[in-house]
Amino acid sequence: MNLDRRLLLLLREHPLPFVTAVVFGAAGGLLLIVQASVLATVVDALFLEKSGVTDIAVLLLFYGLASLLRAAFSHTERSAADRGTLRIKQTLHERLLHKTAALGPLQTRSVQSGKLGATILRGVESLDAYFSQYLPQLALSLFVPLCILGAVFSADLPSGFILLGTAPLIPLFMTLIGKAAKKATARQWNTLSRMSGSFLDVLQGLTTLILFGRSRERIHSIGEISERFRHATMSVLKTAFLSSLALELVGTIGTAIIAVEIGLRLMAGAIAFKPALFILLLTPDFYLPLRTLGAKFHAGMEGTSAAGEIFALLDRPEPSTKGNNTRRAEPVRHSGPIVFDGVSYTYPGGRDAALKEVRCTLEAGRCTAIAGPSGGGKTTFGNLLLKFATPSNGIITCGGKPLEEMDRDEWLQGISWVPQQPYIFHATLRENLLLAKPDATEAELMQALRSSRLENLVHSLPLGLDTPAGERGARISGGEAQRLSLARAFLKNAPVILLDEPVSHTDPALEVELLASMQSLIEGKTSIIIAHRLSTIEHADNILVFDRGRIVQSGSHAELVSKEGFYRNALLSIREESAA
Amino acid sequence: MKTIARLLGIVQPYRWWMLLAALLGFATIGSGVGLLTTSAYIIAKAALHPSFHELQLGIAAVRLFGIARGGLRYAERLVTHSTTFRILGRIRIWFYASLQPLAPARLQRYRSGDLLQRITGDIDTLENLYARVVAPPLTAALVSLLLWFLMGTFSPVFSTALLCFHAAAASLPVATGRLNRGTASRIVRLQTELQAETLDYLQGMDELLLFGRVNERRERLASLKNELLRLQRRQLLIRGAHESATGLLMNGAVLTLLWLLAPQVNGGMLDGVFTALIVVAVMASFEAFLPLPDTAGHLEESALAGKRLFEIIDSEPEITVPENPEPFPAQSSVSFRTVGFTYPGTSRPALSEVSFHISEHEKTAVVGPSGSGKSTIANLLLGFWRPAEGAVSVGGREIGTLDPETLRRRTATVTQHTYLFGDTLRNNLLLAKPDATDEELKTALKFAGLETFGERLDDWAGQHGMRLSGGERQRMAVARMVLQDAPCIVLDEATANLDAVTGRTLMESVRRFAARKTLIVITHRLREMETFDRILVMDDGRLRESGTHRELMEKKGLYASMWSLQHRPETASLTGNGI
User: Strands A496-500 and A526-530, how do they pair?
Assistant: First the structure.
């Protein structure tokens, strides 16, 4: 029946609109019976009693009034259901937004972020039909046929038994349909999405096709693929539609049986014309709600499957939020050394610890370089420093105060961070910069652009700083995005800086300038640089070499060079490469 | 409306299928009308206690209509679905065929996956074009016509009166469409905005946290959602009103006809036995008008989707295929004569006064900082863009006079990003040489250093298939290049995304293969420059220097300074070397 317990719990939060919808729907159903009765009386009066227009005028007026009322009721019913649905969608949407914030960046920015987005955007929308159509219809398809059945029984017993006898066929066929429809809709949906998927593939690869001089030939194969999909789907639909054929037949044949049965009994004088017409008028409406429910079955199914995704997301365990929301949090300090004391961290679901027993001190006002192979723990170190994750073991302090007990937002206020792949928001370049300092003046913006060597790029754009960025706007290259992030760091001018140095070197001359400008940014601040360049490391006050989650070497450049180990080996291989 | 007409023009080859589906839809509702009218007739007649055989015909008709309605509905659903799939296929073919000559020059703006996805989304929206936009009014018109004749057998007054109510029901979508005008497009706009903002919220979460903007963003998202819900509710309210109004019109028609028919029955002009029949016929006919509220909404949606597609298609192609292309030259030399070029929408020329000649079998490197015009040279050479000034020629013939497809088949190109289709490895390779045997494919793979792939030709590659590493993708590109066996090879930053070791081995295989071919390598990494016959140094759209590595180093100009900058140990990458 597609009744998801947790979806029904949502109903309990906003019950009034749905109760209203069902009450008015039911009242509409009762009016339907009244209308049929009036109509039967009018026709009987005209046909058999040869009444004049004036005799039936009152009845016609009554019929008109009932029609108006029914229209008003059905409108109230629908609008109430829609109102309730809207509230539920609103509630769920807000809950999902809060939840994703609570899950934190490590989870939202993971590979699955596309899926998260789909759940928030489409999942909530696909509940619409479930609440606005399926559930009210479910209630009505129980109530209205029962009322009609009662009315028919009171008018004529045999006809009532015929309806009662054929009605169970409908739920029977419906379960059959349910199974077939499930397969058919899944198949149909699959076909459509595969068709559009394969078409998207061709569009994305269009330049490749052109490069091989094969783009014109593809026209033909697109047609072939579409035809193939069509044939495959149609063969499934042919059987799937059979069950709805059966459902339709129950309705029409039921009507036919009633017509013949009362016709014959009428002839024999066993029933009067008026109740006979009354029953005939009601018979289609007896089957209709059940058939409509069959049509809404799809909405019910889609709703429960969307609910599965939504609740799976809402139930996801949140990372430890120690100190993130505590009221009596420690006052935040950004001055003083940052100390990692025996810090270990294992990612949720991960087997091995990403950091193991890390002990180090990041001196205040000094520059610490982090080096080591990828997967060595450099990024995890940064995540812990940013409080995106909380240590599984050990403690991090800044100026003697434990990081755990500080409010995350306040702690982050004092940190600038330039990630390896900064995110560019779907907004203008200006808005992307102002994120770091909402009240920045034009002069400050320009200074930040100059410092991050973005000035020329911005000047070359026709709209300058007001050019939209992100996917919909100008295409910002990876290097440019990182310079934009650097400009944000210049604007924020925080006392602690975490910098992930760019790896790619598109333009050597630009790179030399950038390195110099980064040096000026970190001057006098507590800075941590995840370094990829020898020159950066050489300038650092202290170097930490990470490998497999541990700090394997530390010290100044001079110290490390003189010692046998990881650092010196790597250095030697660079010398060889550049000499080549 | 113009958009819809244009769309209908595209799917016009399926007009007979559409007509058949509409006729079946009409016949379905028609049998519904038939079932109820004959039923009403039977009981009315029976009330007069006739002999049994007078009812026999009616009873047979009731059975017939009862079964026909189910069968017809089944046939209608099948034909409608099949037609919908046909129409979708046709629209895809049409769109691709119109898009293909515009690529890649006119599609630069649409490169991002997001926009391509929206195109396919728009095409999927047109799925409703037939079943929900075209078919319902057509069916309603046919049913109305049937009732016109049916009522006409009793009295022209009846048929005219009913026609008025049908016309009113048919014009309701126009009214609701007007009330809802713009709502659909506002909804689409809001949805796009909501999508971008949600992506920002999820993927930019770390930076939002960093700048303390999570709450602000969440509130903004919630208010966007509320705005969207408000619009959707407005749409639903209007739709609901539409449905209620259709119900009212039906009851109005019943009342009016009863009012008109009463004096006629009384006066003996009309047999009273038909009273019930007329009433139920009127009621049953309105079934055809029930899907119309949907039509108005889908009409606007389809028009919007169509408009966006036409906007893309309606641009002028950059390159036109010459009517009588000259035969392709046997020689594979390349020359640029005072070529100047500016990309549309930019003010700075990408190339100005660039002249050079590359002889057959010469090995040339094109170097320079990013944005210096290196890739534009490849774009012009492949005929993607037409030079604004000067001329580009291959084997002494200007490329504008050659067939562009032949030009591209004779110029093998490997770019930075190799696209693999969601298809088998074999089909991805056959792109380069459709008639290649499996043996040839295996040889090419072996040459590219992908021997192991030779046994996996039927494995699925691309998005939903095996995940190929960057190095494997580029090797696939080299295998394609080998298969293509073109006299001229262009590498455009082909190894830029690869680590030093992989890049070097890849270049070695290319160089081995290109021994007797013309080779042009575009790169910003100055590696193994001694192996080139000539190096063209680009800067700011101009050709600054050219010569061999030794000559250029001695010259101590731009090239020499770039080289020494890249080969300083300080700027060397630690990551590339295993630290």
Answer: parallel
Binning pLDDT at 50, 70 and 90, where does residue A191 land? low
Amino acid A475 reads R
Closest approach of chain A CAs to the CA of B556, in angstroms?
Answer: 16
Judge whether A464 is closer than 8 Å to chain B, CB to CB. Answer: no
> Which band of pLDDT confidence, cut at 50, 70 and 90, is reported for residue B136?
very high
- Per-residue pLDDT averaged across A81-102, rounded? 92
Residue spans of alpha helices (H) in B326-469: 374-381, 404-409, 425-430, 438-447
Contact call for A260 and B42, based on CB within 8 A = yes
Contact by Cβ (8 Å): B117, B123: no
The reply to whether residue B348 touches residue A460, judged by beta carbons under 8 angstroms, is yes
* CATH T-level topology, domain A338-579: Rossmann fold (3.40.50)
Question: What element of type H or E holds A545?
Answer: strand A542-547
What is the model's pTM? 0.82
Query: Rounded to an integer, what distance in angstroms lies between the CA atom of residue A259 and that of residue B112?
Result: 63
Q: Which of B92, B123, B565 is the closest to A508 by Cβ?
A: B565
Q: Which of residues 250-269 of A touch B (CB under 8 A)?
A: 252-253, 255-256, 258-260, 262-264, 266-267, 269
Residue ranges of domains in chain B, CATH in brackets: 2-182+243-313 (1.20.1560.10), 334-577 (3.40.50.300)
Instruction: Report CA Rg, chain A.
Output: 36
pLDDT score at A471: 56
CA dist., res. B149 & res. B33, Å (int): 13
Instruction: Give the residue with greater pLDDT, A288 vs A574.
Output: A288
Which is nearest to A43 in space by CA: A232, A248, A272?
A: A272
ipTM at complex level: 0.83
Size (chain A), residues: 580
For residue B467, what pLDDT is reported?
65
pLDDT of A183 reads: 67
CA distance A224 to B238: 42
CA–CA min distance B321, chain A (Å): 12
- Contact residues, chain A, for B258 at CB < 8 Å: 42, 46, 56, 60
The pLDDT of residue B552 is above 90: yes
- Distance between CA atoms of residues A513 and B41, nearest Å: 94
A565 touches B: beta carbon within 8 Å: no
Contacts of B41 in chain A (CB under 8 A): none
Distance between CA atoms of A556 and A368, rounded to whole angstroms?
Answer: 9
* DSSP codes, A294-346: HHHHHHHHHHHHHHHHHHHHHTSPPPP-TTTS-TTPBPP---S-EEEEEEEE-
Quote the CA–CA distance of B62 and B48 in Å, as a whole number. Answer: 19
CB atoms inside a 10 Å sphere around CB B75: 18
Whether residue B565 and residue A259 make contact (CB cut-off 8 A), yes or no, is no
CB atoms within 10 A of CB A282: 24
Residue B247: pLDDT over 90? yes
Indicate the burial class of B49 (C-beta count within 10 angstroms; 0-12, 13-18, 19 or more): exposed
Tokens of B259: 């009012």
Q: With contacts defined as CB-CB under 8 Å, which chain B residues touch A116? A: 202
User: How many Å apart are CA A163 and CA A250, to the nearest integer?
Assistant: 10
Give the residue from B402, B441, B277, B39 showing the smallest Cα distance to A261: B39
